[in-house]
Design goal:
2 copies of one chain form a homodimer. Chain A contains 16 helices and 2 strands. Chain A is mainly α.
């Protein structure tokens, strides 16, 4: 896995350097710095699912697969920077979010106009650049044209699906039913699919040149389930995560009022009084430590936390059973097992 | 030209309908409506430059060229919706801008949270969807793979260049020198290149499979110059345009404080007192009719308006002279002449 991470990071570094040289015209330097920051962290999960899909379907270690897999990090970076603008988030991985960086540059430099508007505008453009680059890096990976042609419809679909999923999320926050089912659907479309299922499918199709029935079964049986469990873990970390590890303030999802599966379970199981408290506190931008503790207590007391932990375990078990049935190579089976566990038991 | 417009609009309609059916899940209906609105107007200049590049280099009337050319309208629509978010513009072609439409939907529906934030978020996602679709429609135009492969680097370059150009524009507004030269550079990178030069280059390369030296000369000699004249016309319309035709309030660019070539020429030629007045009024969001008249008067009195009109004439003349030297077909020469005149003498 270390080798994979190294290869992915090398491919990203080389690509970005070609597109926006660090030594180039200095007026673009803030774009480059922000891109580097966005691309510097992360678990590289999406490239790993893609790579092990490729290996699982018989692909060998050629440089192109690392480049193709790494391009998924550019898509993810694009989604993060736009997400932070949309949510007006100040922090990303413990550091100022991209639009706040651009805003700070504006204010520090004493430029004309609104620093906030400059920051958001620059971040929207940076996100667009990363989105454009992700497609370019993917197509120019050096993999055989027939492999890329076979996988391109999956790639196209994934990108539109991500945007539509994020739109569903906006709707769900604005007027959703906030049931477990509706939260699950949003989680799947907004994140689960493009974090696990689609990267895996891309790797499989790149290697095989087609989507064989067993691949579809693996993408659903393993990919979808790991994707949901990944999001359930995200829900839990958003409430109970350690700020030192997540890089976000404690209980940040509560302050943002995110309508997650965890919150839906809590509301469904809470007494009328507790449910009213949750509805009252959730989304309060000034929610303090005491408010966070109150909500955590209710989420724990209703059994929702344990229920979500159990669901993660169930989904993981089903995913590994599906993986067991798939005719992937032994090495890929072992790596995909580790990845599923890592994705669902992570601390950040 | 009517046929070209009809073909472009048919291709756009079919593509969007396949991606987001009007009869599909109704929760996406507002995205579709906003996309239709963005795609319904416009002069179709970019597809026309692409098409006539293709014909000029010997391409014949195949359906694929209309699809490829039409895809440029999706890129333009993406840029418009993001631009309006970045500028916080209320109107686009006389109708509410996309983010204001989404905001109105939120407020009319009595949903939770901030309508403004919902509107901007939805518009960012819509812009991303249109950006993704533009690449997809381009690649799936049905033109021969070798043509598309030859043109792809130009296509990739154009998209990154547009985003970098828009970033330069943000910088220029925030702390630029506001000289004619700096405004010209921004105009070229932000709009001129992807409005004229690059669409033309795409058409030429698609047809010829390579960039022959005469094509480069035509792209620079004709394309760059028409692009600059196109932007100069834009600068003039932004100050003196008829709201009934532009769909924007009178003097909108003045209220937004845009640092255009026209403004740069005015500042360079104005008396110290007039220059101070311009600097004072430019960018005042509450600028009223009287303020607009004051600025118009100064822009006229300094001779900057006439100077820009003269420049448009000069650039157009040089462009047509360059076109005259290019070995394009007679039909293409005639159409590119008409297009250059239309792009630089337009009222909207």
């Amino acid at each position: 896995m270390d080798t994979l991470r190294t290869q992915v990071e090398r491919a990203l570094g080389e690509f970005v350097e070609r597109r926006l040289p660090a030594s180039g015209e200095s007026e673009f330097a803030p774009l480059r710095t922000a891109a580097d920051e966005l691309l510097s962290g992360g678990k590289r999960l999406r490239p790993a699912f893609c790579y092990w899909g490729w290996r699982g379907a018989g692909g060998t270690d050629v440089p192109g697969i690392f480049t193709a897999a790494a391009s998924l990090e550019l898509l993810q970076a694009s989604a993060l920077v736009h997400d932070d603008v949309m949510d007006k988030s100040d922090l990303r991985r413990g550091m100022p979010s991209a639009h706040r960086r651009f805003q700070a540059l504006h204010e520090k430099s004493g430029w004309h106009g609104s620093g906030e508007q400059f920051g958001e505008g620059a971040a929207i453009l940076l996100g667009n650049l990363l989105l454009i680059w992700s497609g370019e890096m993917w197509r120019n990976s050096g993999l055989p044209p027939e492999s890329l042609a076979a996988a391109q419809p999956v790639h196209d679909h994934m990108r539109s699906e991500l945007m539509c999923g994020q739109y569903l999320d906006l709707l769900e926050q604005a007027h959703g039913e906030n049931t477990f089912e509706s939260a699950l659907r949003v989680a799947l479309f907004k994140s689960g699919k493009y974090s696990v299922e689609q990267p895996l499918r891309l790797g499989l199709v790149l290697a095989a040149g087609e989507v064989a029935p067993w691949m579809d079964e693996l993408c659903t049986g393993y990919g979808t389930r790991v994707g949901i469990a990944f999001q359930l873990r995200d829900d839990i970390l958003g409430v109970f995560g350690d700020p030192a590890q997540t890089g976000k303030p404690a209980g940040d999802d509560l302050r943002e009022g995110k309508r997650t599966m965890l919150v839906a379970r809590t509301l469904a199981a809470a007494s009328p009084g507790d449910a009213a408290t949750v509805r009252h506190l959730l989304g309060d931008p000034d929610l303090d430590g005491r408010g966070v503790d109150t909500l955590r207590q209710i989420i724990d007391d209703t059994g929702a936390l344990q229920e979500c932990e159990n669901l993660i375990g169930d989904y993981l078990g089903e995913a590994l059973a599906a993986l067991d049935q798939a005719p992937v190579t032994a090495e890929a089976r072992s790596a995909l097992t580790d990845l599923a566990i890592a994705a669902t038991s992570r601390k950040t």
